[in-house]
Amino acid sequence: MKKYIALILTGLMLISLMPFTTFAYYGDYYSDYGDLIVSVMGDDRYPINGAIVTIYDSNGSDVTPSGYYNYNTYRLPYGYYTVVATYMGFEAREMVMVDSSTNYVSLTLSTSNNYKYTFVVNTVDGNGFDIKNLDTRVYDQYDREITSVGGLYTIGYAGKYRVDVYSGYKLVKSTYFDYSDIKSGTLTVNIDGGFYAADAPRALTDTLRIAKNIRRCGDYGSVSPELRRNFESNLDIVSNIVDDFKDGKFSYAYNGRYYDKYGKYYNGYYRNYDSYRNGYYYVNGIPYSYYEFYKKFGYYPDEYDKGRGYNYTADWYLDKYNGLSMRYYVEALVDAANAVLGDMPISSLCTRDIGHLKYPSIYDYNGFDTIGSYDNKTVKEANDLIAEARKLKDKRSDSYWKKYSDALQKAIDETNKALKGNGGLKNAVANLKKAIDDAKKNDGKLYTRRAYMKGITSMTFSPSGTLTRAEMAQIIANLLSQSGKNYSYGAVNFNDVTENSWYYNAVRVASNYGIMVGRPGGNFDPQGLVSKEELIVIAARLGGHEAMAGNTFQIKEHYWSVPYIERALNSGWISMDQNFNPSEKISRGETAKIINKSIGYGADKEYIDKNIDTMTTFDDVDRTNPYYYEIVVATNTISYQRTDSLRIWRAHVTQNGTWSDSNFGNGDLISPIK
């Protein structure tokens, strides 16, 4: 018994020597637990909501509580922990000791230092067409607006973002995107539907704002009544145009142009009724005859491909507003405003603060904030080329043309994107020019080129023989006739050319068009022989070539022909010859060569070699003659197609006067003389 009592006393003594600990409750937790408050921030020192927090103990075990004790607050036993925060691939970690009732740790996700993204917002409709004149605004997750610089947005913090798209004051689209969605540099927002009210461009709103400020000037009353009336008349017109924008009278349509809302898009055009059946025009299910329609609506049923009432194109000169272009009215208001400012006293605050107004540039009309570095000429050129490319693209729809049609569309899209700031405009314009040039050179169309020279007999050409001025006039008349310039509007005033001469009409045409001139003394000298310098000058006039400075041959006389001889040498019509004599008579063979080169008549040698037996040939011209192919070109009528920048001959007129291949006969007659 004593033994057990001793053990009990010993146990009580040991208990009395232990440190005193209070096991009080805090809700469901004991007092040796503490609260760990975790905050996760970005580089901008703003909290990142939605970050995943994981807590590890000193053994590396995940001890993250299954639920929050409070928002971003975790209850943990006293001890050392590693806190890890992750968000969208970014990670931050921090070691912390929990040793009191409340403990804090702040983690920073360093996203901006290495992952800044710059991007543009591209708005498109359901068919993928760019929508211009819509205002975009980007906000971070704390609803702070991110300011764009020249249409470019830059974000450097992980998180959710929002883009709002406005048409004027109307919100047409609001969508969210992730930080990683804009790595490509473009955020494309698809606006559902077909029509969107277009916001008034800066060219109108800025000019109108300045004009209204001028009207509020204290010295405005001192301006002459006539200048004020003109100014206020133009101000009212521009104000009405801006109001029409705000009222939605300008809208964006599927095909990239702006149209009035009046009318419905259908199968490539617009109309002001729903359908047409059995002589009746249906609107909302109700049939109307042609005149009933007018009585009901005040206008006749109509179809149109450009919209009705208000519309405009990129250069702002083509389409009208009450008979004149909008750009006309804006520039008229600028002129009127400058006249008013000029009539105010020099000491006027308006004169000092506003100064002299300038015409808005093209990109001010179209809202191109991002291309201020490009001049007005470049932007207008881009828009003009787009219009040309679209017309060329729609010219044909066959399988041969698809290659060039696709290339044109790709270049059009690239240029449109560049105009919106997504890409280099100058490079896009260069690519568009190339696509247009390739399409023009490879249109697959059939062309016809007539012969313009004949032999001296049916069997001989006399390639080394000379050429009279009368014969030269006939060659010129042949080329002018093919170019549609066969009307001689003036009389022949040469003493030695009579109406019964075989060359009368030829001399009349050649001289009236300024290709040939007479000799001193009032004569034409029809039987005189043509010299090399004369032929070169005539060829330059035929081909529209300009004279060129220089005197490579060191010609000491005949200065009137030297600039054209220099042009012929540099253009490859003649070769370098130390013995070149401008007065030497030109041969018929060399005449064919020089004229062919001047007007761009080339030889398809492969075709000639294959078909020469049925072409016009001469006994005194064989393949050994240096002018063989040139003479074949000058004396044969052929048809050709342009493909891959080459002219491929397809057929020729045979010796019996018929086409060698009727499938390729009678193409469009070309104009050798521009």
UniProtKB/TrEMBL annotation:
Source domain of life: Bacteria
| Span of the signal peptide | none
Where does the record place the SLH domain?
490-553
Coiled coil residues, start to end: none
Q: What is this protein called?
A: S-layer family protein
Q: Which organism is this protein's natural source? A: Ezakiella coagulans
Q: What is the lineage of its organism?
A: Bacteria, Bacillati, Bacillota, Tissierellia, Ezakiella
